[in-house]
Amino acid sequence: MNKPSFLQPAEWARHSAVWSAWPSHADLWQEDLAPAREEVAALFSAIADVDPKSGESRGERLRILACGDEAIASATEALRGKGAEIIPAVFGDIWFRDTAPIFAHGPSGLQAVCFQFNGWGGKYVLDGDDQVAAQIAAKAGLPALRQDWVFEGGSLDVDGEGTALTTRQCLLNPNRNPDLSQRDIERSLRDSLGVESLVWIDEGLINDHTDGHVDNIARFVAPGVVACMEPAGSDDPNFDILKRIIATLKDARDAKGRKLEVMTIPSPGRIDDEDGEIIPANPMNFYIGNSTVVVPLYGSPTDDAAVEAIGKLFPGRRTVGLSARHVITGGGSFHCITQQQPEVRS
């Protein structure tokens, strides 16, 4: 079989920029708007990693979309001195891992692969979200490779060498592509993102409204090496799910035939919202920047141990843990709101 024409690089490959959005809609965020903005600003500051002496970014360029005059002014003030480009745009919410294009190398260079988006299976349909991919492709000045099926970036994690992780709960969910079989989806991911071997995990975390996005449970950290969570204890609400994920990954091989090496990160255990409902809090939704890995924290006793464990997986980068307690009230965390643009290959 011929090699795929397109390939999505691993997240640890060099980025020319990160695309994200500023929390812009008070009706969505309500009392969490201001504190969520503080957490998002801290994330962007860590990704930019500006040298306090030279004022130069050691990280990557921030390209931040904001919707409406108030949000534009708020983002401009909060990100002053971070080298951020604030871009007026129309969007529903900030979850750009799922609504932005996925950047892949192709025969004619870097392209923006634009999938269809239906509000996570029709659960959260917001005006403008289905136009985010096209807007970013245009603003990036890259050709858009349009796909005719529903797909979200958070449902896939790649190693940059042809292997990817995903979940059946999401990709085979009839609320996305009821007419596509598992084989159809595997073929489409090979054609659009260069996935030659897909590791299927059954399900994601309890109460994850994305229907089990893999970036909440398992991530490639190097070719042939994957990280996932170890339950915090027998009372961890995801105990059985996490144990099955570990077993699945230990039994898997990548596109090169290697048996995956599995590294475990402490789960935060049970984290509830103000109504006492379990939220899908996890440290796996970290963002791998050029100089910094940013880990979301939720006030769990295992927070420090999770940051330390993830830091050991990225010895060439600094690793920081930042609060995401208010961001997650919107349904996601740091990885969910970012989409990296790889550097153009020479």
What is the CATH C-level name? Alpha Beta
Give the DSSP E fraction (strand runs of 2 or more residues): 15-25%
> CATH topology, what is it called?
L-arginine/glycine Amidinotransferase, Chain A
Strand order of the largest sheet: 3-2-1-16
Helix content: 10-25%
Describe the 3D structure.
The structure is a single chain. This protein has one domain (15-342): L-arginine/glycine Amidinotransferase, Chain A (5-stranded Propeller), CATH 3.75.10.10. Helix content is 25%, strand content 25%. The protein has a four-stranded mixed beta sheet. A three-stranded mixed beta sheet has the order 4-5-6, with helices on one face. It has ten helices and 16 strands. The model has no long low-confidence stretch (mean pLDDT 96). It has 346 residues and is an alpha/beta fold.
Helices and strands in order:
Blueprint: E1 15-21, H1 26-29, H2 33-48, E2 61-66, H3 69-78, E3 84-88, H4 96-99, E4 102-106, E5 109-116, H5 119-122, H6 132-140, E6 144-150, E7 157-158, E8 163-167, H7 168-171, H8 182-193, E9 197-201, E10 218-222, E11 225-230, H9 239-250, E12 261-266, E13 287-288, E14 292-297, H10 303-313, E15 318-323, E16 339-342
Parallel strand pairs: 1-2, 2-3, 5-6, 8-9, 11-12, 14-15
Antiparallel strand pairs: 1-16, 4-5, 7-8, 10-11, 13-14
